[in-house]
């Protein structure tokens, strides 16, 4: 259903390090799930439009009027690392 | 020797001129202290939701006519997923398969004739924040003030065939966007950025070559340089029998070369899907018509009109129109002033020099049209002469005062007695030159020069010449 | 009767006639929580001082004739994925260990504006992913009817708190059944309003196109009361719908005579006989009230769980990308090899690996897979198309019927640990509820007695879009006929 290699690729896309045991378990669980969701392939859905929203509310927008945002203490209240009003991360070499 | 042709497509990101961000009500003012224009929504805090800025949609619709684009009947937003520290939600809200505009074109000038460049699509999205990488610290710094600023990404078809055409395309596009007040297109502040897709192929070959992408070019000149470099690089690879590898490059300004940032294997899988937090948008004909009716005159149309109305050349018009503010200033002056050519000369001469010397943009030019006309009128009525006018111009720019305040001292001396006295002084001082005048009429110029020096440029030259004539007694 | 046993409507009446005070209510509930929540473990956090202060303030308002609104003096418990300003909000996850939102959720503002107060934050499956509350990263919550059993999930804490008499009212969130299923398993009323009826602003997202805040209460009337407070358009949520809010309490007694209930046959096909018997008994009650009952078919029912898990996990994979250790939340400092985390990619991988629990990881991976290059059309788009077919089934059925009636859950509460190792069997607990998240219809779980193990059984009423008043009226009139006990004894086996 799904190869371990593919699970590794997906985990990397999702930025989730998996231990070897987790890789095994996830490969098995995802395999089961994929088998289950493959059930949808039985259905012919040619020409059926997709539904993204159960209840459609078109053209919802707001006026272009500025409001003040968060105070500096609120911006950084939950932040794991900051310096001089900047968020910081280990240097990213671009 | 094989000849190659270049095929380019441009993706231009412009920041839209709104007061607030695309999906929240934070201000978009440039240059504020770091992280001072951030709210719970653009910080991506859990539980917060985006709400679309109506003005951003209207600005995008405003572009439609100028780029000859079709407007989507239904448009929607999608999430583009990737991790980067300048993107707090872990996805960018963009538009994938139903962009607001599609299938347009603009005309660009080329040495031969105007050329049509097709616009594949234009879509709305939110900008990312800024990363600052400094020497001497183990950290990169993140400023989220820019995050969420509305962008319009305009994607051209691969119709551009040289770096010069790319340059013309960008200039034309910029003029349109400025004219419509869609964007201030300030490249230093990053409100216009460009990605280039480029491939080459031997002349006559039908299939496209493998293309590479050069990202994040923030000057038109870099676009031209980077495209030239990349085309040459690809050519050399092919000539050496190599294969072009798909990849994403950056322009290294210092080394003047393109550098590989990401190869094909590392290409992102953005996993686009419809943004569930936002409904779709039905763009009614009424809304389109309302916006269409409020459109200002477009640059090409304006140029034609100005050429006819003011009898000025196409080239001069191009100079005026390149920046909307310049053309607006010009026309504002002509409401009360009747000599377009004289005004044009000043704009191309004194005004341009002043701006260059002081490193200013036209919007910051300190003399308002009303005051500027007053100066030109003094000159027109010969109350002051040209030299005096230039001096007064400098003073006005420096002090912000009106022309009258300086013209008193600069007023021409037309009083015969007064002039006669100065002329006599000149002849006394340089009798040899006066003597020469009898045999060499050109020597008169030297006398006038001396006169101007003594009168600090205020003497009326025509009267003075006559007096000199009389005094020397031809 | 004592304060914890009263419904919110009864407490209101006692407050209005000055027979009790808001402070007495707060104290009585806190007492009961102190006595029994060590066993039930429904609350993650209670700010006692704040609660008592608010109760006093409420009493003061009342004495000055400045009553704020219809919840004056009534406490409401909140699932811990609903943001409370300055109060820790965790989603029961280690990735948000110290998150203090700088805003209140829309529903919190509404509750406070109508005089209500926040009793505390309740336990849940991490990020609302689960059907048993066993995916909380803090502790398990127990079913007050049998402490060895799960309370259902993901809003298990809210369901357990209401049935244990810790609070008359609670809010939860329902993405695939997370209000209705635990309400069914705990034997209380659990309402999922129409998608868009209640603003999601301040609700921490799981599957944005499916998430809806819902109510827990021990009577249908209390559900109507709370819905009246929280429903309505909010300009901060673009999917919140501009539909008039009905006076739900006033419509509870609208006559049911001549109304029609549809029984979707697919929902009864493999149903446990005992459960089926309880539900058919409820159907008989409706018949006795003059309601016509007929079978109806919802042919795409069997595909609902598959479509749901694709759509919900795809949305979740993006919604949970923001927990990356950069701007807020947990940032890992040490990796699995016990060395220091040094670069950006490692921060991402380690923070998320250490911060998220197994079920959350599983769903992020499934959702990422369904959206990834090469699978998008086969899974994600397909699921959206199936969603259309399911929605059409229901629209068609509701042309003929006023409400649909189904079981809430295929099983009653099961022992802790029974299904935790088998994700698929856990997912199938949602088999009767997910359909109405996909279609957006309002649905309400109503308690209808107990099985042989003395565990609650519930049925589900499904209404037309924005017709919450209809299902509430059905539930209320059924409740009056049957008087099912909704207050649990809090006992072991």
Structural key phrases:
heterotrimer, B: 474 residues, alpha+beta, Arc Repressor Mutant, subunit A, 3 domains, nine-stranded mixed sheet, three-stranded antiparallel sheet, 17 strands, C: 493 residues, alpha/beta, Amidase signature (AS) enzymes, eleven-stranded mixed sheet, 15 helices, 11 strands, 38% helix, globular
Q: Please, what is the average pLDDT of chain C? A: 96
Spatial shape of chain A: flat
Q: In the CATH classification, which architecture of one domain in chain A applies?
A: Orthogonal Bundle
Share of residues in strands of chain A: 5-15%
CATH class of chain C: Alpha Beta
Computed over alpha carbons, the radius of gyration of chain A is 23 Å
Number of helical stretches of at least 4 residues of chain C: 15
| Class from helix and strand fractions of chain C | alpha/beta
Integer count of domains of chain C: 1
Give the CATH topology of chain C: Amidase signature (AS) enzymes
Derived structural class of chain A: alpha+beta
What is the residue-averaged pLDDT of chain A? 95
Strand order of the largest sheet of chain C: 1-3-2-4-6-5-10-11-9-7-8
Structural description of this entry:
The complex is a heterotrimer of chains A (94), B (474) and C (493). With 94 residues, chain A is an alpha+beta fold. The mean pLDDT of chain A is 95. In chain B, the strands form 4 sheets. Chain B has a 9-stranded mixed beta sheet. Chain B has a 3-stranded antiparallel beta sheet with strand order 6-5-16, with no helix packed on it. The model of chain B has no long low-confidence stretch (mean pLDDT 91). In chain C, helix 2 runs antiparallel to helix 3, helix 7 runs antiparallel to helix 15 and helix 9 crosses helix 12. Chain C starts with 7 loop residues before the first helix and ends in an 11-residue tail after the last helix. Chains in contact: A-B, A-C, B-C. Chains A and C meet through helix 1, helix 2 and strand 3 of A and helix 9, helix 10, helix 11, helix 12 and helix 13 of C. Strand 1 of chain A pairs parallel with strand 2 of chain B.
């Amino acid at each position: 259903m799904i190869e371990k290699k593919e699970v590794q690729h997906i985990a990397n896309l999702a930025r989730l390090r998996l231990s070897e045991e987790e890789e095994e378990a996830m490969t098995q669980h995802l395999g089961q799930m994929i088998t289950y969701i493959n059930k949808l392939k039985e259905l012919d859905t040619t020409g059926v439009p997709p539904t993204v929203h159960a209840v459609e509310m078109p053209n919802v927008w707001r006026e272009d009027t500025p409001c003040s945002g968060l105070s500096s203490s609120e911006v950084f209240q939950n932040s794991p690392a900051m310096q001089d009003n900047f968020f910081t991360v280990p240097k990213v070499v671009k | 020797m094989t000849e190659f042709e270049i095929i380019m497509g441009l993706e231009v990101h412009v920041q839209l001129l709104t007061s607030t961000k695309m999906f929240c009500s934070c201000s978009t003012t440039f240059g504020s202290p770091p992280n001072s224009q951030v709210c719970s929504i653009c910080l991506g805090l859990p539980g917060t939701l985006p709400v679309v800025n109506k003005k951003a949609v209207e600005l995008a619709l405003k572009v439609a006519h100028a780029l000859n684009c079709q407007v989507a009947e239904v448009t929607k937003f999608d999430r583009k997923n990737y991790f980067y520290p300048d993107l707090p939600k872990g996805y960018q809200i963009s538009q994938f398969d139903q962009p607001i505009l599609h299938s347009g074109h603009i005309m660009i000038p080329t040495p031969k004739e105007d050329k049509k460049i097709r616009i594949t699509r234009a879509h709305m999205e939110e900008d990312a924040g800024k990363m600052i990488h400094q020497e001497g610290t183990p950290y990169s710094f993140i400023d989220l003030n820019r995050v969420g600023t509305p962008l319009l990404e305009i994607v051209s078809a691969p119709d551009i065939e040289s770096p010069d055409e790319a340059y013309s395309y960008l200039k034309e596009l910029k003029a349109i966007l400025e004219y419509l007040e869609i964007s201030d297109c300030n490249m230093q502040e990053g409100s216009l950025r460009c990605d280039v897709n480029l491939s080459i192929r031997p002349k006559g070959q039908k299939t496209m070559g493998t293309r590479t992408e050069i990202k994040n070019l923030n000057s038109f000149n870099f676009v031209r340089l980077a495209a030239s470099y990349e085309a040459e690089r690809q050519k050399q690879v092919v000539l050496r029998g190599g294969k072009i590898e798909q990849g994403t490059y950056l322009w290294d300004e210092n080394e003047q070369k393109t550098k590989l940032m990401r190869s094909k294997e590392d290409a992102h899988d953005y996993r686009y899907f419809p943004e569930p937090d936002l409904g779709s948008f039905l763009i009614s004909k009424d809304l389109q018509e309302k916006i269409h009716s409020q459109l200002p005159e477009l640059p090409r149309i304006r140029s034609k009109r100005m050429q006819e109305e003011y009898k000025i050349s196409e080239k001069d018009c191009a100079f005026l129109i390149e920046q909307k503010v310049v053309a607006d200033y010009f026309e504002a002056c002509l409401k009360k002033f009747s000599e377009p050519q004289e005004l044009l000369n000043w704009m191309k001469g004194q005004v341009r020099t002043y701006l260059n010397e002081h490193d200013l943009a036209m919007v910051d030019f300190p003399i308002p049209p009303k005051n500027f006309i007053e100066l030109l009128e003094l000159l027109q009525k010969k109350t002051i002469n040209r030299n005096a006018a230039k001096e007064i111009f400098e003073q006005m720019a420096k002090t912000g005062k009106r022309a009258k305040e300086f013209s008193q001292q600069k007023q021409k001396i037309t009083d015969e007695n007064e002039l006669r006295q100065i002329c006599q002084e000149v002849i006394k001082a340089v009798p040899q030159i006066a003597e020469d005048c009898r045999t060499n009429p050109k020597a008169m110029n030297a006398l006038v020069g001396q006169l101007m020096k003594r009168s600090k440029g205020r003497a009326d030259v025509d009267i003075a010449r006559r007096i000199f004539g009389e005094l020397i007694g031809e | 009767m004592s304060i914890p046993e009263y419904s919110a409507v009864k407490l209101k009446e006692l407050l209005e006639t000055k027979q009790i005070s808001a402070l007495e209510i707060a104290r009585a509930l806190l007492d009961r929580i102190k006595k029994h929540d060590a066993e039930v473990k429904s609350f993650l956090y209670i700010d006692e001082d704040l609660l008592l202060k608010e109760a006093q303030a409420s009493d003061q308002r009342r004495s000055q004739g400045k009553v704020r609104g219809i919840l004056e003096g009534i406490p409401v418990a909140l699932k811990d994925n609903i943001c409370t300003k300055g109060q820790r909000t965790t989603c029961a996850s280690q990735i948000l260990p110290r998150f203090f939102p700088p805003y209140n959720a829309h529903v919190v503002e509404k509750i406070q504006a109508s005089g209500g107060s926040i009793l505390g934050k309740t336990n849940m499956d991490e990020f609302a992913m689960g059907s048993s509350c066993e995916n909380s990263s803090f502790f398990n919550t127990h079913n007050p009817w049998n402490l060895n059993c799960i309370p259902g999930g993901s809003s298990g804490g809210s369901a357990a708190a209401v049935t244990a008499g810790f609070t008359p009212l609670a809010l939860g969130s329902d993405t695939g059944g997370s209000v209705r299923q635990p309400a069914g398993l705990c034997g209380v009323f659990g309402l999922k309003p129409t998608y868009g009826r209640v603003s999601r602003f301040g609700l921490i997202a799981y599957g944005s196109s499916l998430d809806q805040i819902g109510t827990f209460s021990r009577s249908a009337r209390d559900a109507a009361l709370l819905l009246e407070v929280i429903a309505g358009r909010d300009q901060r949520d673009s999917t919140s719908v501009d539909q008039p809010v009905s006076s739900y309490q006033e419509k509870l007694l609208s006559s049911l005579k001549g109304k029609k209930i549809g029984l979707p046959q697919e929902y009864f096909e493999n149903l446990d006989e005992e459960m089926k018997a309880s539900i058919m008994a409820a159907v008989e009650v409706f018949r006795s009230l003059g309601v016509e009952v007929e079978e109806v078919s919802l042919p795409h029912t069997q595909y609902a769980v598959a479509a749901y898990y694709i759509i919900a996990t795809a949305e979740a994979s993006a919604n949970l990308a923001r927990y990356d250790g950069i701007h807020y939340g947990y940032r890992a400092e040490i990796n699995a090899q016990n060395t220091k985390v040094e670069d950006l990619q490692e921060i991402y991988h380690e923070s998320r690996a250490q911060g998220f629990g197994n079920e959350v990881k599983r769903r992020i991976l499934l959702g990422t897979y369904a959206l990834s290059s090469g699978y998008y059309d086969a899974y994600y788009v397909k699921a959206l198309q199936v969603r259309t077919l399911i929605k059409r089934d229901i629209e068609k059925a509701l042309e003929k019927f006023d409400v649909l009636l189904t079981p809430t859950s295929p099983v009653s509460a099961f022992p802790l640990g029974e299904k935790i190792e088998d994700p698929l069997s856990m997912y199938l607990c949602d088999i009767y509820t997910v359909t109405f998240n996909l279609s957006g219809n309002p649905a309400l779980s109503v308690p209808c007695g107990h099985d042989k193990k003395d565990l609650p059984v519930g049925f589900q009423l499904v209404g037309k879009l924005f017709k919450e008043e209809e299902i509430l009226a059905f539930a209320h009139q059924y409740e009056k006929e049957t008087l099912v006990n909704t207050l649990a004894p809090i006992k072991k086996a």
